[in-house]
What does this fold into?
Amino acid sequence: MSDAVLNNIRSRRVVREMSDQPVTRQQVETILEAARWAPSGGNLRPIRYIVIEDAETRRLIRLVSPGMFQKAPVLVLLCLNEEVMIEHSLPPSDRALLIDVGTAAQTIMLAAHGIGLASGPVTSYSKEAIRVILNLPASYSPEMFICIGHKAESTRRGMKAWKKINWRDLTHWERFPQA
Amino acid sequence: MSENWVLKEGEAVELLALLITSARIQLDEPAHYGPLRLLTATERLSGMILERASEKSREFLQGNVERIPELHMRMSDVDDYAAGLDGLCREVAECLLRHSTLEEDAS
Ligand SMILES: Cc1cc2nc3c(=O)[nH]c(=O)nc-3n(C[C@H](O)[C@H](O)[C@H](O)COP(=O)(O)O)c2cc1C
It folds into this structure.
């Protein structure tokens, strides 16, 4: 793996304060094209991306999203499309579907970071209110927003860690000993 | 309490949206996010009323309430978070007294 990829992974941080500087359509398309390369269980591609640039729609979304602290110029909503699940006889409760959301979300955030943009994921919103505001098709389940924009000059620090961890604390090697 | 109108209808509805959606998402989120949501509502309400608020409230609204976003980020340090919230509780109590007849009686 090249240093550039590792540096991108290590230096990406969630940004919760963004400036008014717009994001170009080309930048958004670069990010969405990158997301298309995220791994997907069974290569089924159950995610649909909804891009929101309209200012009033973004304002209303923020009002029903208590966890959306940033005022981002672009929002990408990752939805699971139930039609894909029905087509492939997958129960909507299949947890692998949410792993798809995760791989896509991280790919979007790293792609944004790679082209000099800031991003932040948000899952703290009312799904039902979002359905109403976006007039979502019934088969779309809104799973996660990724806010995309430019980092504000005076950006607040990230959330203080619960405890300092390194990768070794999170890793176990080989079999667990017999009880 | 003074009888100033400090909130517009649109602002009040925005606050209702925040409170209602916060109540719903809290069912799926860790318990310690509860204070975070209440403080987010505090911060929003404070921002909405600041312009129209009287001197009696301004001191409070421009004090630690404005630093609530920084307080959020410290929630993993429980003692520090509690101390920050205790500070806000003292300040809101002082603000209540400034609005109360108790204070007027004393002066
Ligand atoms: C599934 C998931 C949901 C998240 N939801 C939110 C959210 O609603 N609001 C928010 O500000 N951050 C949210 N985050 C961001 C995390 O708080 C953040 O990744 C974490 O604090 C570590 O910060 P870092 O990514 O900058 O290292 C979410 C992250 C994940 C993976």
In short: Residues 55 and 98 of chain B are 10 Å apart (CA to CA).
